[in-house]
Amino acid sequence: MNITACSISRSKVACQTKIFKSIEKINKYSKTKIDLKLNLNNTTMGLPEYYNECIDKYAKTCDYMILVHDDVEFINMDLDYQIEEGMKKYDVLGVAGCLNPKISDNNLWHLMAERKDLRGFAGHTWSGTNNDLILTVFGASPSRVAIIDGVLMILNTKKILQSNSRFDETFMYHHYDMDFCNTCNLNKLKIGTWPILIDHSSPGLREFTKDWLQSNDSFKNKWKKILQN
Fold first, then answer.
1. 69 vs 191: CA distance, rounded Å
2. In the chain, how many H helices and how many E strands?
3. I want to staple 219 with a disulfide (CB 3.0 to 4.6 A). Which of 3, 12, 103, 175 is the partner?
4. Complete domains list, the chain, with CATH
5. What distance in Å separates the CA atoms of residue 101 and residue 9, rounded to the nearest whole number?
6. Torsions phi, psi of 114, nearest 5?
7. Looking at residue 128, what is its pLDDT?
8. Are 193 and 143 in contact (CB under 8 A)?
9. Are 16 and 79 within 8 A, CB to CB?
10. Rounded to two decimals, what is the model's pTM?
11. How many whole angstroms separate alpha carbon 133 and alpha carbon 136?
């Protein structure tokens, strides 16, 4: 089993990123060594562009591809096992997501569905938690979902290549995950949450910035047209 992880960072030094330290630690204890592709010192390339580049470059030489933010630590030391088990049921894995999302005025995956349709969980540490790990539980996991949070997306590369599923590079840092999930759904790929515990050093979106509002309009206009046809 071959696993490639891809992440993008503003940092100039790999060892300063949380994801580098996490993958390095996992590789010490795991039989399956994860090959981390880390794009450093990035200030211009959006996540979709880099993720598409990684799919085009590496998807044919690995079984599974981890697309992950650089401020994430994996708590699971058996990550390879969890991925292998999860891929027996799904083609795309995440840690949190929802069923039955509806395009709305403000499109965030946990606001696009009813509370009963949220699934999965994620851990967070940042200055606001005094660096204590706070676990947010949305719902059951494993579970079939329609959309997952882009903090972690694990792909069955064979299914991604066969379906020609790609990220929309008109998005930069917002809505790319929901857009990609919608594409995967149209391509009949199965998306699911899996009980992989992460520590994400971010509180999430705190305000609707100008960039977020513009991205939201693009996402809303694109998918209202597509889903109406």
1. 19
2. 6, 13
3. 175
4. 3-228 (3.90.550.10)
5. 30
6. -70, 155
7. 65
8. yes
9. no
10. 0.95
11. 10
